[in-house]
Amino acid sequence: MKLKSAIRYLTNASDSGFGTSFSRPRYVSLVITKKCNLRCRHCDIWKNEDSGRELEDEKWLRALEDIKNWLGAQEIEINGGEPLLKKELVFKIIEKCNQLNLPVSLNTNGTMIDRDATQELLKWNLKSVKISLYSLNPLVHDELRGLAGTFEKTKQALDCLNELRQGKGTRVEIGMLLTRQNIKEIDEIISYASLKGLDLIFQPLDFNIDADYKNNWQTKSDLWPEKDQVIKYLKPLTEQRSKIIKNPPFYLKLIYQYYLDPDSFKKRQCLAPYNNLVVWPNGDVALCFRSNVLGNISNSSVREVWQGEKAGLERKRLQKCQKSCKIIGCNIKKQIKDFLL
């Protein structure tokens, strides 16, 4: 079984030595807005008061047709900022994905999901809604989110979604970003999610989104856990086999290793350039959330951008990338040494 998995890995990454890619993206993220109603400490998107031009709704819908024609039943993930600040566009995208038989998921902070919004979301075939819940302590959650009252709104959104999704196929997922402030709550969050029947995804801390990357940023971050915290609270998580935890066991082990020695991840191969496709609010296309712009869906098809000369050059550049964000779930894949874990 491990041999077959290793062969599959080599097949998926076989084009990593070339300037162009024969692969197709496995992760498509539509970042429909950079605007956000929160002030999270781990993210700088909200600091962009002028988020620039945003694509017209019709162009987003046309891009979905383009993706369908090229990739078939490719899952689409709606992201932000806070995507529900553009609620009508979110509904249009979900409806269009349903018409095209494209699986679609939504990432949200949950603060804008009331009963009416829940009913509208669940009117369609929505694969999953992921809501970030960073602590069961309102003070800790709100501190990390940067705005008082966020915990209650998030909890109400989870309860509302969980109630109204009954009889439907929509998964409701909790995303927990692991920080110094909440790492001791891992067991509590697992118990809470299990009691509610919710899925759970643990997320490793990365350098602030939309900020200029700095080497060794972890040593200056007051969100980064102490080593003794990592060993005490995170190591036991690597042995968890709960069905509600959606991180694969090998990934939980990698997260643990990452918090012990983040620099070791700079040496890993980044597969994001061969797996990821990100479309920014203005239609710009990139291979990951920190890479250069390759083109724009206003004047090129998604496929043309993915297979273009700029994309090939960017893949070559990213082969030498020394950032530790290779741990992030959207771009990490099992590498040969991981089959030994």
Automatic annotation (TrEMBL):
PROSITE patterns: RADICAL_SAM. One of its GO terms (molecular function) is catalytic activity. SUPFAM superfamilies: Radical SAM enzymes. The keyword Repeat does not apply. It comes from the Bacteria. This is Radical SAM core domain-containing protein. Transmembrane segments: none annotated. Keywords: 4Fe-4S, Iron, Iron-sulfur, Metal-binding, S-adenosyl-L-methionine. The lineage of its organism: Bacteria, Candidatus Portnoyibacteriota. Residues 22-246 form the Radical SAM core domain. Gene3D superfamilies: Aldolase class I. Its cofactor is [4Fe-4S] cluster. Coiled coil: none annotated. The keyword Lipid metabolism does not apply.
